[in-house]
């Protein structure tokens, strides 16, 4: 499970760096389908992951609004800051909570923590697949999506 | 891990059913980015998963060619047939092989079986994310991508 999170974090960073070549217009252009613009999609990935990972740790949700983190540098900084907070939990306490049930504040369902982990893993990969189409439609080469053969930065290196 | 495969299999079936509403032209239209057409993408997901899962079981690769399975019904049938073969392995022997190293026939790397499982999970979700964009660009509602709150058919039900 951790390997899939490490994959997502690394691919996310590669996409955030990839965004450096885009114009402001390209970063913010409303796309058809998905979450919205390219930059908003990356912000959304960060924000949603944070909410679910806080819930798994029984921490109160702290929503973030795109308007407050709407430059590429701000999205990168937010991702790095939140990830640092979660990396220690993932490295040390994750196994102990996987079978626990979690009540989240944004709906009235109770989910098992491992299902939440599955959900946020898929959430990011799904949105990254969408970015890859928009990239090609802009005549740009997307970030590679393979898992095998990719050297992954380990979760503890984010602490 | 099995939960993510169950998710992929179910979402794949939902997309294959979704395809029933498409015209032949829409099924085969070459898209920008991704693997090609909508139907080819679904075939590609099936074919790639089969190759990796056979490798993990130390079975010789049996490549499939789209030209031989190029109707929607044939892709559905191929997916069902191959999945049936793999479901028993996933249910009974997966845990025992996760840490084993696997030599695949299509490159000269050796991969750990659990990394191969991660790879094929991500491979499908990434391509499904791409389908969701093409769907919206055709003014059609894509299949939902959430993991939590989705009732999953269990691997053993595919046997």
From TrEMBL, chains A, B:
<protein>
    <submittedName>
        <fullName>DUF664 domain-containing protein</fullName>
    </submittedName>
</protein>
<feature type="binding site">
    <location>
        <position position="123"/>
    </location>
    <ligand>
        <name>a divalent metal cation</name>
    </ligand>
</feature>
<keyword id="KW-0479">Metal-binding</keyword>
<dbReference type="InterPro" id="IPR034660">
    <property type="entry name" value="DinB/YfiT-like"/>
</dbReference>
<feature type="binding site">
    <location>
        <position position="127"/>
    </location>
    <ligand>
        <name>a divalent metal cation</name>
    </ligand>
</feature>
<comment type="similarity">
    <text>Belongs to the DinB family.</text>
</comment>
<feature type="binding site">
    <location>
        <position position="44"/>
    </location>
    <ligand>
        <name>a divalent metal cation</name>
    </ligand>
</feature>
<dbReference type="InterPro" id="IPR007837">
    <property type="entry name" value="DinB"/>
</dbReference>
<dbReference type="GO" id="GO:0046872">
    <property type="term" value="F:metal ion binding"/>
</dbReference>
<dbReference type="Pfam" id="PF05163">
    <property type="entry name" value="DinB"/>
</dbReference>
